[in-house]
Every structure is written in structure tokens, then in C-alpha cells.
Amino acid sequence: MTPTYARAIHWFRRDLRLTDNSALHAAVAAAGEVVTAYVVSPWKGSHAWTGPPRQAFLASCLAALEGEVARVGGRLIFRRGAALAELERLVRETRAEAIFFNRDPDPHGQKVEAALAVRCREWGVALHGFKDVVLHEKGEVLTGAEKPYRVFTPYRRNWEAQPKPPVLPSVTRLVAPGAGLASDGVPTLATWGLGACGAVLPEAGERAARQRMERALDRVIPRYAETRNTPLGETTSRLSADLRMGTLSVRELYHRVVALAEAGSAEVKVSAQTYVGELAWREFYMQVLGHFPEVLEQEFDPSWRGLPWSYDESRLQRWKDGMTGFPIVDAGMRELRGTGQMHNRVRMIVAMFLTKDLRLDWRLGEHYFMQALIDGEIASNNGGWQWSAGTGADAAPYFRIQNPWSQTKTYDPKGAYIRRWVPELAQAPLEALLGPAEDSLWGRRGGYPAPMVNHKEERERTLEMFKAHRAAQGR
Ligand SMILES: Cc1cc2nc3c(=O)[nH]c(=O)nc-3n(C[C@H](O)[C@H](O)[C@H](O)COP(=O)(O)OP(=O)(O)OC[C@H]3O[C@@H](n4cnc5c(N)ncnc54)[C@H](O)[C@@H]3O)c2cc1C
Q1: Pocket test residue of 134, 224, 236, 240 for ligand 1, highest count of atoms within 8 A of CB
Q2: Which residue has the CA at smallest separation from atom 2 of ligand 1?
Q3: Of 283, 462, 221, 431, residue with least CA distance to 355
Q4: What CATH number does residue 315 fall under?
């Protein structure tokens, strides 16, 4: 069959894989030759929305992708610069007739896509965008009145009822134009002017992601309903960074989990359904960001805008350093610094502590997480922070303030997670991990600080802050 285009560009973005990749699959079907390209963003030094761990993980994903593309006969071209300018150069150099890409759920990416659509018309180049990052894009799951959902449960019900897109075959052969195209090479941390990342990161790339998925399907997801709130051990799938980078397709993951449920016991079914619910949360927050991009600046619930949050730098630093004197909080913050990851239950605990015990602005925590997490996903992160602050879509009401000590008793009752991440506490008596212990119980603290605040008192002050704000609005 004659291809529609002699030559096309596939623009890799957050879809760094060959398996079940919507746009790449379509590009290969439509074009005689496919130029695969990745544009490395040109910022230097620091970035409000990312940091060394995620950039290091991204660079390793790109190195792995370069190998995968070469294995099937293609060549991955790297260009450093602004996406539009680099794509224009590439179109000129290759005389490509079309650009294929997978759509970004984030507002910034969408702005670039809109601008590219205009430029492609000027260049006389066809542009093909595909759904790939999600099972359902923001316009697909709406209320009966065609409005976006603001609450998760009805969203999930509707999301689940929608037919899901099928898995596409892997791209096994790429025909690339002959040599001669310049490539800037795989980026490193130095490309962005970043120093060493310091965290021990998981293996990156499609192959490693697929191995993680198989392991999770085998060992974790069948028991997920029971294990998912335990912060230490193989209790959750740890696939969020792969979904973030697109080294794993959410379609494939979804269909594999559904197949597991169909073949499994009642217990496995419940676990698989619980897991699918988490994938729905991911898309719920993406549609919140898509419909209400102002959440990146402001509280989702307008009535909580203007709360008198604190900006105390030294308190923020103690939280970042894992030196608050609340062992569960410090364990989480140190896991984050050590691995670029943190268990979901602990994310909620540290976020609630920052916003409700320290009353620091949730945006400070949101940005720090984006700089420290390898799975940093603008929508889920914003959703998680606003949930914890009590200001978001379907958030915890402001008066439901979690007690870090009770959370420890429930989710880390033996202190195993704490001892793993806070070495000063390795020998501390269990009581000292489960409540604000007197120094007499500790012997010596070994450099570990006493709790920086009294939770009960801070809880009262926080409730006052919210109530006073409400009263000032005449509510
Ligand atoms: C304050 C805060 C910040 C967060 N920031 C991020 C972030 O930047 N990136 C991110 O991917 N997730 C974020 N989450 C959600 C959640 O903590 C992570 O998705 C989860 O810990 C990733 O580990 P996992 O892959 O083992 O998850 P699993 O428990 O195995 O869940 C499977 C997948 O479902 C999705 N998921 C699970 N829980 C949530 C959730 N609450 N919201 C949205 N998606 C979810 C993820 O894609 C995850 O990989 C945040 C949560 C909170 C409370």
C-alpha cells in the first residue's frame, strides 16, 4: 500500500516507548520513513516544576529509548531548544510532510500544541495528535449536563462505564532517512546545568518499566487492597514514574489488570478493582487541571482563596530535611530525598503536616515535590496537595486534620518504615516513634530533634485560621 506521506516526524514527548504508542504506531502506518525526535527543553540552572532526580530519570529513559529505536532500525534525533523552533528546523532539514505526536494533558504542553498547529498550517505540514497519556481525555467523561466533574466518585462511575481503547501492537520496524541528520545526543544533568541528583533511582526505560509491571501484576496488584497502605516493602506497584515518562502505556496496564481480575479469585478481583480506581484518580486530577488550570495558582475551592498561610523558610527547610521531630514525617521526607519516590500514605501525612501543623502554604510543598519526585505529575501532585490542604476538588474537609502520631500507629505500628529511613531512630524504643516521647525515654536523641511543634495545639490554631477566614467572608 502506498503510504500517505513519504516522510513524517514522530515527536516523542511523554511517551518514551515503542509498545502501544498511539502516535508512533500511526506514523509508521502512514509514512514511508519516520524521523523520531525528542526536543530537550533549553532552561538552565533551576526550574520551579522539576529538579535533578526527575531530569536524571528522564535522561536515562531517553538513553534507553535511543537504544530501542536503533534496535528496530531507526535513529532518535535529539535537539536542544524551544519545541516550535526545533521542529521547524527539523521539518526543513528532512522535508517531512507530517508531524505525529501524543497529546499532553498539561496546560503548558497544550499551549505548545496549539501554537504548533498554527505553524504547521503555515509550513504546509500535516499535524496529527493522539490520545495516549490517558484512557479518557477531559472532554470524554462529563456530567449529564456536559459539565466537568468536581467530585471523584461519580467521575469514577462514569469513567469506568466508558469503553476503553484497545492496546496497539509494538513498533518492530522503523525506516529512517539516511545518515546526515545532526543530533545533539542524549541529555545529561549537565545539559540543564544541574548538579548530581543524590538519589538512588530505579532502572529507567521501557524494558525496566515492563519488568516492573510484570512483577507488580504477579506480586502486588493481586493483594493490593490489603497492602496498599503499608509504607514499607513491595506494597504498591511503583509504576507512577513509568506512567509519567510513558515508558509504560496506561492502556496496556489497565487491560492487564482487568484480565487479572477476570481470571482471579474474589480477593484478586477486589484488589484489581481498587487498583483501577487509582488509575481513575490519576485521570480525575488530569481532567481537573484540564478544565480548571487556575488550580496551579489558586485554591480549587474559591472560598478558601486568601487564607493567611505562612512562608517561614526555616520551618520549610526542617520539613524538607526530614528534621521535624515527627518520625513518620521525617522518614517520608528522607525516603523522598534518597529515592525520588514516596509512598502515597506518607505523601498524605507529610502534606497534611506541612499545611495543618506548620500552616505553610501548600504551594511550597507542591513545588518541592515537583522538584524532588521522579514521578512528579503536575495534575496528581496539585490534586494531592490541595486534597491535603483542604482546598481542592473532593478534598478532605478542613476540620479533618490527620494526627501524625495516630497515622503512625495505624500504618507503621512497628516503626519498620521509620527505622528504615531515620537511622538515628534505629534503636529507639517503639513508644518514642508512636508519640511525642520525653527525653527520659530516649536516653540520648543521637542528633534527632524533639518535635518542632505540638500537634494538638497546632490543630486548634489551624481550625481557628479556617474558621476566621470563613467568618470574614460572612459564611
Ligand atoms: C501530596 C501528594 C502528591 C502527589 N504527587 C504525585 C505526583 O507528583 N505524581 C504521581 O504520579 N502521583 C502523585 N501522588 C499520588 C500517589 O501518591 C502516587 O501516584 C503513588 O504514590 C505512586 O506510587 P505507585 O505507583 O506505587 O502507586 P499505586 O498505589 O501502585 O497506584 C497505581 C497508579 O495509580 C495512580 N495513582 C495512585 N494513587 C493516586 C492518587 N492519589 N492520585 C493520582 N494518581 C494516583 C498512579 O499513577 C500510580 O502509579 C501524590 C499524592 C499526594 C497525596
Answers
A1: 240
A2: 384
A3: 462
A4: 1.10.579.10
Does ligand 1 have an atom closer than 6 angstroms to the CB of 382? Answer: no
Specify if 260 maps to a domain: yes
Question: 27: domain CATH number?
Answer: 3.40.50.620
Q: Does some domain include residue 199? A: no
Q: Both 255 and 138 in a single domain?
A: yes
**Distance between CA 225 and CA 192 in Å, rounded?**
40
Residue 399 · residue 465 · CB < 8 Å: no
Is any atom of ligand 1 closer than 6 Å to the C-beta of 14? no
d(CA 66, ligand 1 centre) in Å: 28
Q: Which of 229, 235, 282, 286 to mutate to test the pocket of ligand 1 (most atoms within 8 A of CB)?
A: 282
The CA-atom distances, in angstroms, between 136 and each of 22, 80, 123, 200, 338 are 14, 31, 31, 33, 34
Q: How many domains does the chain have?
A: 3
The verdict on 150 and 282 lying in the same domain is yes
Residues 119 and 138 in one domain: no
Q: Is the CB–ligand 1 distance for residue 240 below 6 Å?
A: yes
Annotated catalytic sites, by residue? 278, 281, 309, 344, 362, 385
Same domain, yes or no, for 461 and 322?
Answer: yes
**In a structure prediction context, what are the per-residue pLDDT tens digits for the chain, which is 475 residues long?**
789 999 999 999 999 999 999 999 999 999 999 999 999 999 999 999 999 999 999 999 999 999 999 999 999 999 999 999 999 999 999 999 999 999 999 999 999 999 999 999 999 999 999 999 999 999 999 999 999 999 999 999 999 999 999 999 999 999 998 778 999 999 999 999 999 999 999 999 999 999 999 999 999 999 999 999 999 999 999 999 999 999 999 999 999 999 999 999 999 999 999 999 999 999 999 999 999 999 999 999 999 999 999 999 999 999 999 999 999 999 999 999 999 999 999 999 999 999 999 999 999 999 999 999 999 999 999 999 999 999 999 888 999 999 999 999 999 999 999 999 999 999 899 999 999 877 766 766 778 999 999 999 999 999 999 999 999 988 7
User: Would you call 84 helix, strand, or coil by DSSP?
Assistant: helix
Same-domain status, 331 and 430? yes
Which ligand 1 atom is nearest residue 243's CA? 47
Q: Which domain holds residue 90?
A: 5-132
pTM of the model: 0.97
- Listed residues 265, 291, 317: the one ending a domain: 291
| Closest ligand 1 atom, residue 350 Cα | 1
Q: Do 90 and 139 sit in the same domain of this protein? A: no
Give me ligand 1 centre to Cα 24, in Å. Answer: 27
The radius of gyration of the chain from alpha carbons, rounded to an integer in Å, stands at 24
8-state DSSP, 47:
B
Residue 174 included in any domain: no
**Ligand 1 atom index nearest CA of 342:** 21
d(CA 236, CA 224): 7
